[in-house]
Design a protein that fits this description.
Glycosyltransferase_2; 8-stranded mixed β-sheet; 8 strands; 10 helices; binds uridine-5'-diphosphate; Nucleotide-diphossugar_trans; alpha/beta; transferase; single chain; elongated; binds magnesium ion; Spore Coat Polysaccharide Biosynthesis Protein SpsA, Chain A; 314 residues
Length: 314
């Protein structure tokens, strides 16, 4: 067990959700790398309400190694919350969030640490090859980053996940952000600090399956956009002005036409089309507003981001 007052150089933070098969291979590959860094370290597992034997597996490892710690959340709160718990409890001078499925190669930690020692506060691990992802996933991801970055004030780097090194300064800055709905990639970027990039090739999962399917990813993207941009709300103002402008000119045209050519009745089809079109546009506008109001509602409850069931090791 890690002593209360011990401050390691590195804290490795690993959110785990149903990862019973990957814990042991993960430790087998990361521990030798951490030894090589010549830094003192701790590895914190956050069990995010796994329903398999993940917790037992972690506990059996923790029992034999005093550099390992475990935080057990009371249910599945999602990766962002698990990561937040890890950052809150990490004691290291630098923190490295990493997935346990070995998709983030542990060897890269050597490069992350050497850049940190050069003086960078943020060292991003960038995937240069996404061939381990499906075409649909890499395409939608790329579209999301482009859209997100074009409408939000921050730049979330493309092809960069949560795998990175952040210094204590950055961790403390992140802890100042009180929001409940935590889009960590955005939060990491929002706090700033001097950063650099190291590149790697993303491997397929060591075992098990991804927890992020299409619908979850869509909601994740919505969280990202609504957390860091109000453009989707404001766009309706401009769309409204545009539609009113068009309606005004079209109305004027009809009046002039009626004065000159008299009244004619045709126009039922175009009327119905326009009523339906504007009905649809208004509903979309309302829907977007609903997205934000829903998030405001959740946020206003000030619920904690996660609940810890027990953390006997801390
Ligand atoms: N994860 C988590 N809680 C969740 C979903 C995932 O802690 O609700 C963890 C998971 O155990 C893994 C990491 O987040 O360590 C990344 O998950 P995954 O590999 O499923 O995502 P992908 O790599 O496919 O984006
Ligand atoms: Mg993965």
């Amino acid at each position: 067990m890690v002593a209360q007052d011990f401050t390691p150089d590195l804290s490795v933070v690993c959110p785990c959700y149903n990862e019973e098969e990957t814990i042991t291979p993960f430790l087998e590959s990361i521990l030798p790398v951490l030894e090589q860094t010549a830094c003192s370290f701790e590895v914190i597992f956050i069990n995010d309400g796994s329903s398999d034997k993940t917790l037992e597996k972690i506990r059996s490892e923790v029992a034999y190694d005093k550099t390992l710690r475990v935080i057990n959340l009371s249910r599945n709160f999602g990766k962002e919350a698990a990561l937040t718990a890890g950052l809150d409890f990490a004691k290291g001078k630098a923190v490295i969030p990493i997935d346990v499925d070995l998709q983030d190669p542990p060897e890269l930690i050597l490069q992350l640490v050497s850049k940190w020692k050069e003086g960078f506060d943020v060292v991003l691990a960038k995937r240069v090859d996404r061939s381990s992802d499906t075409l649909a996933k890499s395409l939608t991801a790329s579209l999301f980053y482009k859209f997100h970055n074009s409408i939000s004030g921050i730049e979330v780097p493309e092809n960069v996940g949560d795998f990175r090194l952040i210094s204590r300064k950055v961790v403390e800055a992140i802890k100042l952000l009180p929001e409940n709905q935590r889009f960590m990639k955005g939060i990491f970027s929002w706090v700033g600090f001097n950063s650099t990039v190291v590149e790697y090739t993303r491997q397929p999962r060591a075992a098990g399956e991804t927890h992020f399917n299409g619908w979850k990813l869509w909601n994740f993207a919505m969280d990202g956009i609504t957390s860091f941009s109000t453009v989707p709300l404001r766009v309706w103002l401009y769309l409204g002005v545009l539609c009113s402008g068009i309606a005004f000119f079209y109305g004027s045209f009809i009046i002039v036409k009626t004065i000159i050519f008299g009244v004619d009745l045709p126009g039922y089809a175009s009327l119905v089309t326009m009523v339906l079109f504007f009905g649809g546009v208004q509903l979309i506008g309302l829907g977007v507003m609903g997205e934000y109001i829903g998030r405001l509602y959740i946020e206003s409850k000030r619920r904690p981001v996660y609940i810890i069931e027990n953390n006997d090791e801390i």
